[in-house]
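Need a sequence for this fold. Nothing fancy.
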């Protein structure tokens, strides 16, 4: 996990992400678990595909009328988790 107190967490993510993309043992390096909180308070998690990221955030695609889109619109406080088992690394983004 990249610690939030690391001076350059974005740089560490970039390095780890590149390593994951180059690792043949990782079939889906762009897969990330997206966790949202529904209007009733229930937490839902599902895997989505990272399309790109930059200093503004992480970009993935979804249908605008999907359950995850509705959940994000009602509560934008989501979290992401990347797990790259072959590298022994995970990244949590809150």
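Here you go.
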């Amino acid at each position: 996990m990249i610690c939030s107190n690391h001076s350059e967490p974005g740089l560490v993510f970039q390095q780890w992400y590149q390593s994951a993309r180059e690792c043949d043992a990782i079939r889906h390096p762009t897969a990330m678990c997206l966790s949202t909180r529904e209007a009733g308070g229930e937490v839902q998690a599902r895997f989505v595909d990272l399309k790109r990221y930059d200093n503004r955030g992480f970009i993935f695609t979804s249908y605008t009328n999907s359950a995850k889109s509705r959940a994000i619109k009602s509560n934008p406080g989501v979290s992401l988790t990347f797990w790259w088992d072959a590298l022994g690394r995970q990244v949590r983004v809150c």
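For context: The chain has a mean pLDDT of 90.
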